[in-house]
Design brief:
single chain, alpha/beta, eight-stranded mixed β-sheet, three-stranded antiparallel β-sheet, 17 strands, about 35% helix
Length: about 375
């Protein structure tokens, strides 16, 4: 690429030299401008070519070899079940519930809601893989308060995907898979996003998975549901609005895997829309291996619910001045907490001027409430 670029520059110089000798100063300025424009165009072409080649290079790489600039970090592991209100029978298989998550205003409420579902499930180990380079205190606090056995992993996505949301959750699930392959010898793996809604019955059913079980997922795609199609107790096809030339056209929340079937070859690629399919193919799964659940895939026990994206407002509040009013220290702490959790920004000079109401009247400051 560089040799070609130098050849172009040399060719332009030769033309310029000939034209200068033949035309002398008469057309020198015109030819000079043409040369400068040619030089700029060639530089832009070189930069575009380099960036295109780099993109092609990454696209053609084995997904497992894409460089990750920040390594995964194991934040904390708790193997003790501290829930006194549940009977954790030792006869039950452990369910390893893998949740990819990422920092956003909705993260804490989403995880809190999911936590209160999982707290009702016996013999479950919650693996939360967070897409940030630091171990989040907010995530750690939620996990600790549940009383569940859990694993907290910091698993940022590769640098080349930092500017986009795709493919979502792959780095997190890969980190969880690595931990499972090193630490779990039996049980059942299930991928559940932090915004999914799950019927407790599903946990009872997937616990019986021998190889790979599958079931419908509601509120997804153009069909409203994604599901295997069952005939005579066997999966014969898939009902999903995006076939995508996939062998297994299923949603991430629509299958569970027995840990003993989780082969060393198990891998999830950084290819948007093909994460589930390529993962199941990497297990060596065959159509006849699939175990249909949820009344032969006739009932929906999990939904792909999504919280509406929250547009974070900016409040024009002089927090320093407000701190001087000690009688309202709890209100000040609330504003700080709101800012810390990303629900609103606090600015001294910009944003919406907030008001306080009492007895149907509005006040600009707490001082006016006296």
């Amino acid at each position: 690429m560089i040799i070609l670029y130098l050849a172009i520059i040399s060719f332009l110089n030769s033309i310029l030299y000939v034209l200068y000798n033949n035309c002398k100063m008469r057309y020198w300025k015109v030819f000079k401008n043409i040369f400068v424009m040619g030089f700029i165009v060639s530089v832009m072409w070189l930069m575009f070519s380099w960036s295109s080649m780099e993109f092609i290079r990454y696209a053609s790489m084995d997904p497992r070899s894409i460089p990750i600039t920040v390594k995964n970090k194991l934040c904390h592991v708790n193997n003790n079940d501290e829930r006194v209100f549940l009977n954790n029978s030792s006869d039950l298989k452990m369910i390893y519930y893998v949740t990819p998550t990422y920092p956003r205003p909705e993260q804490v409420p989403e995880l809190t809601r999911l936590a209160h579902t999982l707290m009702h499930v016996p013999k479950i180990h919650w693996i939360v893989a967070d897409d940030q380079s630091l171990c989040s205190k907010d995530v750690a606090d939620i996990l600790r308060r549940t009383g569940l056995p859990y694993t907290h992993i910091s698993s940022p996505k590769p640098y080349i995907y930092k500017g986009t949301n795709f493919p979502r959750g792959v780095a997190n699930r890969r980190a969880a898979l690595s931990w499972l392959q090193e630490n779990a010898v039996e049980g059942v793996l299930y991928f559940g996003d932090d915004d999914n809604t799950i019927d407790l019955q599903l946990f009872d059913e997937i616990r019986l998975t021998k190889k790979v079980s599958m079931f419908p997922v509601g509120l997804i795609g153009d069909y409203g549901v994604s599901s295997p199609i069952v005939k005579d107790g066997k999966v014969v096809g898939f009902f999903d609005s995006w076939p995508g030339s996939r062998m297994f056209a299923v949603d991430m929340a629509g299958f569970a895997v027995n840990i003993e079937f989780l082969k060393p070859s198990a891998n999830m690629p950084y290819i948007a829309g093909h994460e589930e399919d390529r993962f199941l193919v990497s297990l060596g799964l065959k159509l006849e291996d699939i175990e249909p659940l949820a009344a032969n895939c006739s009932k929906v026990l999990v939904w792909h619910t999504k919280t509406v994206k929250y547009k974070k407002p900016t409040l024009r509040v002089d927090i320093k001045k407000l701190e001087d009013v000690t009688a309202y220290k709890y209100f000040v702490n609330l504003l700080k907490e709101t800012s810390r959790l990303g629900m609103a920004s606090i600015s001294n000079s910009n944003g919406t001027k907030p008001y306080i109401t009492r007895n149907r009247k509005s006040y600009e400051t707490v001082a006016e409430l006296h």
